[in-house]
What we know:
Blueprint: H1 3-16, H2 21-28, H3 32-39, H4 50-57, H5 61-66, H6 72-121, H7 126-153, E1 156-158, E2 165-166, H8 170-175, E3 178-179, E4 182-186, E5 193-199
Helix pairs in contact: 2-3, 6-7
Amino acid sequence: MDQEKIGRFIATCRKEQRLTQAVLAEKLGITDRAVSKWETGRSLPDASIMLELCNLLKININELFTGERLGMDQYKEMAEQHLMEMRRQEERTNKKLLSLETVIGYICSISFLLMIFAASFAVASTWWRVALIVAGSIIFIVGIAYCLKLEHDAGYYECPECGAIYIPSMKSVIFAPHIWRNRKMTCPHCGKRAYHKKVLTK
Length: 202
């Protein structure tokens, strides 16, 4: 997507609707600096407000992504292209989250083991040993909790029985037995319990 072209298009449509940056920002519940960043091509609107922005500018989502008005003959082709681009963007974001989860998981696990090792073999008072064990345990518990949150938020799970792709509850992810990122859960669609595979997009 050409951010500068999209930005120029947003500015043109805003002026056509006789809206200032400040008024548009107020209607969207954001700052006028955010609108300015869009119009200068420094950033794109957040996905959560794109539909509302399109309604205010009297355009559709495909025209927003393209940065120009579309005829009916172009609409279907551009819709498919933008859908594919959004899926690729979602996949990249989810891959980054899962990579971050792996890094944090290794760091907190290694930190925990090093602190336990130090507490076991260091020549120090009992108080220092207990402090090391407690600190290591806190780092490990907080790190693993954050890793579980990242895994829950990144992507979806796919039921091997009915093929449904869904987002489970956080509780299900925490308490489900797992092999790497595959978790044994009950499908909310077919009700069967099996190891559900982690997938990055629907």
